[in-house]
Structures are given as structure tokens and as C-alpha cells.
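Replying to the earlier thread about multi-chain prediction with a worked example.

Input:
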Amino acid sequence: MTLTQPTVIPAPRELTTKPRRSDQVFRGIVTLGGMASLVILGLIALFLSLKGVHILKEEKFGFISTSKWEVITDDSGSIAESSFGIGAMLVGTFLCSLIAIIVGVPIAVLGALYLTFYAKGAAKKILVSLIDLMAAFPSLLYGFWGFFIFMSSAEYWAKLLNKYLGFIPFFKVPAPIFERSPFIAGLVLAIMIIPIVTSISREIFDQTPLDRIQAAYALGASKLAMIRAVVIPYGRGGVIGGAMLGLGRAMGETVAVYTVLNVVYQINWQVLFGAGGNVASLILLKFGEAGPYEVDALMAAGLILFILTLFVNAVADLLIHRFGGKGR
Amino acid sequence: MTLITIPEPQRPWETTMKQRASTASILVAAALISWILIEVTGLNGKAGYLTSFFLTSTILIFIQQFRLRDVAAAKDSLLGSFALLGMVITVIPIVSIVSTVVIKGYKGIHFGLFIHDMALNSVNDPINQGGLLHALVGTVIMVGGALIISFPIGALTALYLTEIRGRLSRPIKFLVQAMSGVPSIVAGLFILSSLVYPVTKSLSGLMGSFALSILMIPTIARTAEEMLRLIPHELREAGVALGGTQWRTVAGVILPAAKSGLVTAIILGMARIIGETAPLLLVSGGGDSLNLNPTSGAMGSLPYYIWKAFLTGGTDEAFARAWGGLLVLLAFIFILFGSARFISGRKVN
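Result:
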């Protein structure tokens, strides 16, 4: 057979790595959606500052350092004099979350060690889901449980501390009122952050390279020696990051602190005495009766809280990613 | 032919009956000693007994290990005891919380609870009057609204992190993490300052949905990202090799494969916000009567119902009402959590 007609050789399709139109649209939409967290965080900072920045300008540094929250209105109802300072509440925030960290983190790390290196089989599965469940409990639940059930035992422990360690300035009390103290609020916060810190520590411990663990055992190390020589050096940074994450949670907690703590506007370093507060509970407390001007001050307080937690979370994230996640 | 006797397989690493007996006797001895300690010293209460039992048993096990083996083994036993202690202390509050809510809450549960609202009743009325229908409906509407807002955003964020993997992946991952740390009250203040005061000038259920979605987005994004990462890479390659564009691959292969994972993300997101109180106290208004319209009027919610009953009541009826509400809330969380476990437990197909 002979070719009668010259065959038309189609021109080769142009090779390109440029995505099709549909893909361009897809990638555009997904990228836009991915930016949402950036946009939302930016908007939070923007709107809180829009409302609160004139208060900050007026009070300057005093907003953080002084401890006065007063609005004095004249007869016509307009504001004659006002002074806002969240110093006392910042101290309270710091105290409560510090107690939460000091009490909660060691327990959480020990629990994580137990889950990783001791628990086996079904028991381990049940314990892990219990702890995940606990992390999902709302703060309302912790708050009321803390107030109605936990308070009496915690009060008793506070009295013991005061009796035997009362010579330390922190454990002194001006009057024997042990109920609703920063100490008890801190313990409730500790219970709230334990599941978070436990699950992060467990993830970090799980990533410890198996060959190093087995090498330690092969050298005759006991479990304790293995954990000290391999697991702790490997997971230290990640665990500190998890603790920081818990700190961020504890600092921003509102409802649980509001229910457990007797919110009083004064600087109180004596953790066992029943008076204190934190920034978030201040916002909730003052919001009900606040006029427009005071609301602006609350927005400023919210802005400070937002920046504070953002900073703590940033450090936590940095630590977890720097030291953990190597195995992934 | 010689007869070869095959020796019984030995398992020297397993705990023998003798060891078990000695451990049991140590625990019994510890219980006895701690009982004596309670009687002699001023310690009392469950916590006191637990402490002394833990201390005595730890010391006894330490001595036993030291006698059997050496100092290293004894120290090792200390770590075991303390790790177990950490676990026990972690579990005690969970058990206490759940049992308290169930024991105190069941008195507040009756059938009328789910068909009445509180429009005509105060929290101090007898427990069989009024109910939490308005709160249940309000919570469902607000959580549903938050879900409609946050699911697309969360899923797109997860897709960006797993499919596009652009230059901004690392910063966005960080920002999602940071967003999950935003205190709930700040989310409420943000909605107040950005929407309520300048735009709507009134509190409503929709505002509650917006505030909740700020807390929900990071949970959905992180869970969905983890679930999308579980999809084998071969599926993506197969989709592209068949000539599909990236969009077709994601829509036709990845998302159907990740369906159960995405449902898990939704459920966990709902569990995260269903009990959220602080933002709703600021922006939802907190009504006592049934309100089906999220765009206008105060809307009740389960957390607000509990909050109000605890704080404004003071009578036994009010407390029973509040604990009953907490029991309903806890039941919701259990159901959500259980179904998330069930769905994510199934194999990715």
C-alpha cells in the first residue's frame, strides 16, 4: 500500500508546568482560605486596638503597672474622672497560672512517662482516650466542680500549708480566710492543663528514637537510667513547649477562675488568702455594668491579654517544633 | 534411637507466682501501716490515706528491690511508683467530675425539661416546671452556625497545608496554633468590637456563632490537616498520573478518601465549643425563651442556662437545675467524643 495522502503530523503539545485555569482558581481559593488565620488574628489585634488604644494612650504605662479601676461619674452621668490599671489582675494572672504550672506539669510529665513506658494494651488505650476526653471538658464544668466539690479538700490543704510553711511570706495570710484563694484557682487550672501537657509530652516521648532506647537497654540500663539518658535529653524542649502551651491556656482562662476565685481588685501575693483575680475574669466581672467608656478600657485589657497569650503560644510552638517533631 | 526430651519453654522474664505474692503482701502491709499512721498521727480524709499508702508502699517496694537486686533497681522502682502516682492523680479528677455530675444531675432531669423553656419560670421554681428547650435549641443553632462558618475555612487551611504546601505553610501552621490559644473571652471581645458595636448594635445568636467559630476554626484545621496527612501519597500520584488536574485529584480522590477524617474534625470542633461560656455571656444576650431566629433577639444556650442557674439561684431547685444542665452538656460531649472515636477508628478506605 502506498501512501496517497501526506499524513498531517500534529504539532507537539507545548510542554508546560503552568497549571491549568481550573487549578489556578483552585490554588487561589485554597491559599485565600489558608490565609484566614492570619487575617482573623490581624483583625482581632486591629479591632481591639481601635477600641482600646485611646485608653492606653491616656493611661500610658500605668495601665499595666497601677492597680486602680475606677470610673467616677458626675451628676449628669458623664464621666468626670477615671483611672484604669490592670496591675493587680496581671499579678493575679501570673500567680494563678504559675501555681498551675508548678503543680500540673510534674504530674503531667509523670503521667506521660507512665503512658509511654509502663502502660500496655487495653489499659493504655482507655487511659489515653480518658485524657483526650478530659481535654474536651468545658471550663464551666471544671469551674463548678472546683467550687462545689474540690474546694473543701483544697481548703484543707491550704490550711496545712499555712500551718507548717506559714513562715514563708507567700503562705502567710492576713486573715484566716482560705476559701476561693488564688491557690485553689491555681490547682483547678492545674487540673485543666494536665491533659494538654500530658498528651503533648506523650507525643514527644513517643518520638524518642527506638534504636537509642534499645541501645540504652542493651548497655544494661534500667528504665530510670534509660529515661534519664535518652528520653529526657531528647524530649526536654518539647515538654517545656507543652508546659508553655498549658501556661497560655491557664492565663486566658475565664469562667473557671471567675467561679472559683473571689475576684477582688487588689494586689495579693499571699496565695492562700481568698482574694485575687485575673485579667479574663476582670473583663467578665466588669462587663455587666460597664458603660461605653469602661468597655473601651476592657477592650484594652483584652488586647493586653491577647498579646500576652500570643507571645506565650509563639514560644511554645517554637520549642515544640524545634525539639519535637523530628521523627515526623 | 534415643529419646530426646524437649524441655518445656521457659519464660524467665515473666512475673512468677512468688513475685506476685510478695508484691501483694507488700501492698497489704502498706495498707496496714498507713491505717496505723492515720490512727496515730493527725492525717485524715481520703487524700491523707492515699498519701500515706503511697509513701509506705513506695518505701517498702524500694526496700524489696534493694534486697533482691541493687540500688539501681531500687531507684528504678521509685520512678515506676511516681509515674503511676502521676497517672492516678490525673485520673482522679475525671472520675470525680463525671460521677459528681451524674449523681447530682440526674435529679434535675425529667421529660418536661426537653419541651419547655424558662420564659414563665425563674430558676428557683420547683424542678418539674420549666425546662431547657430554649437552651438546647440555642446551642444547636449557634454551634451549627459556627460550623457553617468554620468548616470551609478550616478545611481550606488544612488543604493549603497538605496539598499546596506553599512557602507560607510554616507560618500558617504557627498562626493556626496561635489562634487555638486565643482566650475565649478575647474572641467575645473581638466580635463585640468588630461587629456588635459598629454594625448590628444588638446581641444575637449569630454573633454567638461568629465568636464560637473563632475558637472552632483552629480545632477543625488541625484535625483535618492530621487526617489529610494520613491519606497515602500514592493516591495523589495516581490521581495526577491518570491525567487529573490538582483540583480534580483533590475533589475526586483526596476528599472522598478523607471523608471520615473530615467528619471527625467537625465533631471534635463541635465538642470544643459546645460548652464554651465566656464569649456567649458577652455576645449572645442569653435569653430565657425559645428563639429560633439567630439574627435578632437574645438567644439562650446550654452554658448560659447552667451559668444563670448557678449564679442567680441559690436554692436547691436552682442547683438541681444547673447540675441537670451540666449532665445534658456532658452527655453531648460524651456522644460527640464517642462518635469521633468510632468514625476515626474505622479504616481509611
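Chain B has 13 helices and no strands.

Feel free to reuse this layout for your own posts.
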